[in-house]
Amino acid sequence: MRTFVLLALLSAVGCKPTNTDVSPLVDARLRELGLGPSPSGSTSGASRGSAAPEKVTRDPVTESLRFLAKLDQLMDDFVPTTSSASDPSDVMRCVTTLDLQKNDALKAAQQRLQAKREALTKERETRLRALYALSYRIDPDWASKKRTEPAIFGCCNDDGSDCERWPAGAQSCAYEGGLWRVSVPAGPDKFVYTDSTEPPTAPPELMLRMAKAKLEPPPRFACRIEDVRTEKMTSLTAGKTPSDPFVPQGVMFTVIDCSSERRMPVIVRAIGNAPALRAGDIITVPILGTQRAEGVLLKTPGEREMRWTIDADPEAIAIEQTAQCASTQDILAAAKRK
Question: Which string of DSSP letters, residue by residue, matches 293-329?
Fold first, then answer.
């Protein structure tokens, strides 16, 4: 509160506060909230005239969250765009309800065209979500990263006609004479950031804006642990042979929720088992000098909204400070007490 009073007094007397005036006051207010830099040890032993300059040590957890807040500010006006196909149902714009009531064939055509429109809308939404995810990334390998286009098998007639992709999870062809055959041939490897065989000419949008703003990421991201859990991501991917048309791809992640004063969803994600961690521990994971499959820092879907995700190897997680917690034995003993 005193910080705001001082700023108000400066404005009242007609003084425009400079950065030199404001910065100490802002740091003081952040310290009052427990978020900002804390001053170093006392210098009471030194004389007034020879006192050394006060050294300020910034909280790495707060600095890491500030970095993410700056990224959000950089991308605040970003709206992904993608080309959209013409509306197939537009040919029906002059048709009235009375026309449809009188002509069953016209009504059936309307339904087919509406289904095509809905399919195109879903396809466009999928492309926009993918573009959004690819734009919010720090990925050192953006220029060379590729993905494979495997063959997709479908359940087909014995003569190979009417080959279609079978519903996910199907174990066999469900009709007489049906065989697993290649429905979609394997395609050439595509660059991730262009979804084509043409290499990208520019990094993800987030990296472009960081370069323009001259914003450098911290070497390591600091996280005060709020919770630790596992998440299993499973998808069905095309198999290599007709006898194995779908292969479940299950990946177990250790997900570490980081505390955030802004309630900004932030997680550290590691494939496999992380070291023993507890709520309240402070950990760091590398951002600079590391490569990850989807990028070092990205946004991924959460329960209600997109969340900042720092991807790391379990062995790269460093425990910087352990929380003072009761042991499991103490907790069990406390629960037994009357």
Answer: TT-SEEEEE-SSSEEEEEEE-GGG-EEEE------HH
Structure tokens at 337: 């007490």
Q: Are 180 and 246 in contact (CB under 8 A)?
A: no
281-329 per-position pLDDT tens digit: 999 999 998 888 888 999 887 767 788 999 998 999 999 999 888 888 8
User: Which pair of tokens denotes residue 33?
Assistant: 């909230």
Amino acid at 276: A
Helices (H) and strands (E) in the chain, counts: 7, 15
Q: Find, among 93, 94, 92, the residue nearest to 110 by Cα.
A: 92
**Which residue, 73, 62, 75, is CA-closest to 258?**
62
Whole-number Å distance between alpha carbons of 285 and 268: 8
CB 222 within 8 Å of CB 260: no
Give the pTM.
0.64
- Closest by Cα among 138, 282, 132, 293 to 216: 138
DSSP code at position 196: B
> In this structure, what token pair is assigned to residue 330?
């103490």
The residue type at 269:
R
Check the CA dihedral 294-296-299-301 and report its sign.
Answer: positive
Direct distance between the N- and C-terminal alpha carbons of the chain, in angstroms, rounded to an integer: 45
